[in-house]
Design goal:
Layout lengths: L3 E6 L1 H5 L12 E2 L2 E2 H4 L2 H6 L1 H15 L6 H8 L5 E6 L5 H5 L4 E3 L2 E8 L6 E3 L16 E5 L9 H9 L3 E5 L21 E4 L7 H4 L4 E4 L3 H16 L1
Parallel strand pairs: 1-4, 1-9, 4-5, 9-10, 10-11
Antiparallel strand pairs: 2-3, 6-7, 6-8
Helix pairs in contact: 5-9
Amino acid sequence: MRKNIVVLTGAGMSAESGINTFRDKDGLWEGHDVMEVASPLGWQKNPELVLDFYNQRRRQLHQVSPNTGHSALAGLESHFNVSIVTQNVDDLHERAGSSDVLHLHGELLKSQSTQDGELVYSCTGDLLLGDKCELGAQLRPYIVWFGEEVPLLDQAIAKVSAADIIIIVGTSMQVYPAAGLVSFAQADVPIYYVDPKPLENDALAYSGNLMVIKNTAVHGLPPLVDQLITEHN
């Protein structure tokens, strides 16, 4: 029987493809206070600024490609049941070939109705004021902003709970609720933490099966994938 691998990925995964990480040490995101462009209040205050911000991110996404880390994870699917739970809003995992990707924080290439959040649409180009859903309401980025619930969290918890192996890459596991996901893993599940500068995490600290790989996604994932395939097949 195939083993279930759950991969938790964050901004560091996409950074090596040329996508800027979520925010700098000074708390700014592309020169903006994150609350201006990633909160319901920011949207109410200046929707045009918010739309422009995500339009720029979308254009940038079209100019980058998946890296060898993304490709390595996609290659795992030939040998395991692989679920990727990502905090990233880009589509690089999908473009690399991963078929089961859960986006906790939304997707840059989608929009949603401001009247009914269940109405979600493809959005590959610019999203502008006046672009409306079928109900006549303004469309907004399909992004989970600060202060909003994470609608796919329960699905992510179910995946982690059923995991035989967990890989954490490109995330410091400091942002909640995503940071708490690993605490739902079964006690004996091996956890591989791939990060060039791994930080201590309360949930990880209690794992007796934690293996830290001090490397980037591009350099750390391919050999880890080869190791897992060799050990479990």
